[in-house]
């Protein structure tokens, strides 16, 4: 007997909920992450017939778009905030007592990358996806993803060097080709 | 282990939520509740269960609260202004006082870095000591912080700018790997983003030029570290990364026009914000002589390994000082 629609969705949900939740939590604060998970599975519920057999990359792709929409809304809020304030005012007081840690440094460097580079690295390093599955999650071809990942690694290396090097905010380490 | 593999392993280790896929009892009950709500939701796309929609009302309230906080901070910044702005003659004299050839600039700075909007907000302090010349030499050492003081040396980089370029070859020693690697470095395109100090020009002259180009404007004077200081601000400008924004504010010594402090703010298109608050603990110019020239070279690091490719750096790849990894040494 083929599974009913509800049974099919329940199987999909139980198999992938934790991974989608982890995806959202690694990219967002906990409360909005819950919204992302709910929206993602709502899309899956509505479009259950479109969900491929290997559902996780597809779900990651949906979650990525939900997150992007969420950020666009947040951007509008920040723009409004800036107009009200009359100036961009840095927020968040640094804690001078915090020491530099390798993981913090790595996450800071990751945060400085363009969105597509950051996503490529996170899909592989944090979510453990193979190139083919990561490409499906990123919504591009396998070849395009390989190029994107290659560039992302180079950018991450440069950002790390920039952060670890002096006057990090002004220097932009490059490959040796700069001197050629 | 290849550097590439090492990079991805370091990145994997930096996962802020390595256990995120493990559900506790509470998370499992949240999942069950969400599943029940979804299964009760019509799937024809017409009607949507309101309980699975995002909590937009609460988010708007947070934005409004943030706006109030920002407005208060902006007001506090405005209070720092006064009308005692210097005339051009005073500024020109100050710039002339430091625009000299044959000088090694010696800088010790402490930067507090804070990042928000990233998957895992970070705060850290970095100490840096560096020496630079208008002739293109650059040597810098970066330290971790121990409380509010300088901690252990993390890395040491020295290199030179190639003529007509914004950067050039360098050698970098990292404490973590105790290895010296060859690398290239460059200043960012100076025409993009909020302006900064160019370490291959005189800092005072550079800041003055930025004022003349209207990329920095004088926003008043203040007192900082017992010094009378000019406040130079850029306002918010498009960032060097596409879609981003940046701003910078310098406090410069009114007599020497050397920087005393800097606050730099960056915001990526994705919403991540990074703020650097830098205090220049030392910004001095030393006469170029044998002793100060030595400070421009990479420090000796006994026992350090030399990465592949560092042994034969010649011509345009030569770092500009005796290469500790040279095969002939």
Strand content of chain B: 35-45%
Q: Main β-sheet of chain B, in a few words?
A: 13 strands, mixed
The rounded distance between the terminal residues' Cα atoms of chain A is 68 Å
| Biggest chain contact | A-B, 95 and 119 residues
Residue share in helix of chain A? 55-70%
Form type of chain A: globular
End-to-end C-alpha gap of chain B: 27 Å
What is the number of beta strands of chain B?
A: 13
Overall mean pLDDT of chain A: 76
Protein model, in words:
The complex is a heterodimer of chains A (180) and B (329). Chain A has 180 residues and is an all-alpha fold. Chain A has helices at residues 5-25, 30-46, 55-85, 102-111, 115-125, 131-138, 142-164. In chain A, α1 runs antiparallel to α2, α2 (30-46) packs across α3 and α5 (115-125) packs antiparallel against α6 (131-138). Chain A is globular. Chain B is an alpha+beta fold. Helices cover 23% and strands 35% of the residues of chain B. Chain B contains six helices and 13 strands. Chain B has helices at 3-13, 25-39, 56-78, 88-98, 203-212, 290-294; strands at 103-116, 122-133, 137-146, 149-160, 167-174, 179-186, 217-224, 227-233, 237-238, 245-253, 259-267, 273-287, 305-306. In chain B, strands 1, 2, 3, 4, 5, 6, 7, 8, 9, 10, 11, 12 and 13 form a 13-stranded mixed β-sheet that branches. In chain B, a hairpin with a 2-residue loop joins β3 (137-146) and β4. The interface between A and B is large, with 95 and 119 residues.
